[in-house]
From TrEMBL:
Binding site for substrate: 7-14, 58
Biological source species: Andreesenia angusta
Keyword Isomerase: yes
Annotated catalytic residues: 8, 82
Protein name (Swiss-Prot/TrEMBL): Alpha-ribazole phosphatase
MF terms in GO: alpha-ribazole phosphatase activity
Keywords: Glycolysis, Hydrolase, Isomerase
Gene from which this protein is expressed: cobC
EC number(s) given by UniProt: 3.1.3.73
Enzyme class: hydrolase
Length: 196
């Protein structure tokens, strides 16, 4: 089976280095250009079974460009939302360090297990996303999944059977996609395509 993991186009929050897990920000002009490019680039996957997307506006908008190119519908899945950054939402790292220094330091010491105040940790994100991925595997679906950076990194570590702490070994830029082949309990990255 083939899973194409797509990160949404650039948003105002990305441009301004603002934490925006569950907070919606609009796409920038560059983000819209990335969506158009993704739509064209992913036309070659005309035989995919389904397109899934996070319910957050940036992912749904990106998915709509891809769906239009492939003439397919979009299935919205709440479990594909970005990690909830809790108190860090809508703030830059500088603002977080000034307002929540102890939490910032604790998170940087153990970004896998430290639960962001009012938010989630990576273990909880994985627990939310893995049943969805297992469902795809069980149905043997070729699909496109339009979602967010931490979700993509978590899915990659899961499919490649790597520890969750390895998520930073995979960079997922806005508007990029990663193609993973998964057969007989074995996953490998076939392609990583940035849209810059």
């Amino acid at each position: 089976m083939k899973i194409i993991l797509v990160r949404h186009g650039e948003t105002v929050a990305n441009e301004n280095k603002i934490f925006s897990g569950w907070t919606d920000y609009p796409l920038t002009e560059r983000g819209r250009v990335q969506c158009v490019s993704l739509g064209r680039c992913l036309e070659k996957y005309e035989n995919i079974d389904r397109i899934y997307a996070s319910p957050l506006l940036r992912a749904k908008t990106t998915a709509s460009y891809i769906a239009k190119s492939l003439k397919k519908g979009i299935i919205i899945k709440p479990e594909l939302k970005e990690i909830n950054f809790g108190l860090f939402e809508k703030k830059t790292s500088g603002e977080i360090m000034a307002e929540f220094k102890e939490d910032w330091e604790a998170w940087n010491r153990d970004y896998v297990h430290f639960k962001l105040p009012g938010g989630e940790n990576l273990v909880e994100l994985k627990e939310r996303v893995v049943p969805f991925i297992d469902g795809l595997i069980e149905r043997d679906e070729d699909c496109i999944v339009v979602t967010h950076g931490a979700v993509i990194q978590t899915v990659i570590t899961y499919l490649l059977d790597l520890p969750l702490k390895k998520i930073w070994h995979f960079q997922c830029k806005n508007g990029s996609y990663t193609e993973i082949e998964y057969e007989k309990d074995f996953g490998f990255i076939k392609k990583i395509v940035p849209m810059d």
